[in-house]
Amino acid sequence: MTNYPNLPNSVLEITEQPEVKEITNELLKQLQNALKGNHLFTEQVELSLKGIVRILEVLLSLDFFKNANEIDSSLRNSIEWLSNAGESLKNKMKEYEGFFSEFNTSMHANEQEVTAILNANTENIKSEIKKLENQLIETTTKLLTSYQIFLNQARDNANNQINANKQEVLNNITQEKNQATSEIIEAKKTDHFIIKTLIFLRLNKAC
């Protein structure tokens, strides 16, 4: 009797992540539709997993993951969580990819026997895939949402710094203007005093 691979454990070892706002992602909808198809089930899943692995590899290669130590301390823990969660999810995807690859090979080797086993375990496989699908949607949504939050915070920090610098320049200009005005007023007072003194001296001399 042919030996068949065991279905991987669908549980992901990911620590709890702070709450983030839900976002809509068209790619996740397309993935859900692909997994719900009734024809070429194993091929669909295998191709979907390969695509997900590629997406995760791109996400984990982004500069903001590599340069976590240069980011504001308030975001560092979140980014480290994202990196670890992404690695865990990518590894789990590769496990399932390997499983379906071996499974397809076994099916071609002994199609009748594999078909009987598949029919007997269809519900179990669907349940495991559904669990994986839900975890994938939740984790990928958190990844994309947290990245958007990070970008928004970076933008707000930049705007705040620009406004602070602009206000500082305006304050300096106002201060210089006030100082110049005070000096002009003081100079006028001095000129008036000198003129009055000269007039007084001339009057005394005339007398």
TrEMBL record:
<keyword id="KW-0175">Coiled coil</keyword>
<feature type="coiled-coil region">
    <location>
        <begin position="115"/>
        <end position="190"/>
    </location>
</feature>
<protein>
    <submittedName>
        <fullName>DUF1542 domain-containing protein</fullName>
    </submittedName>
</protein>
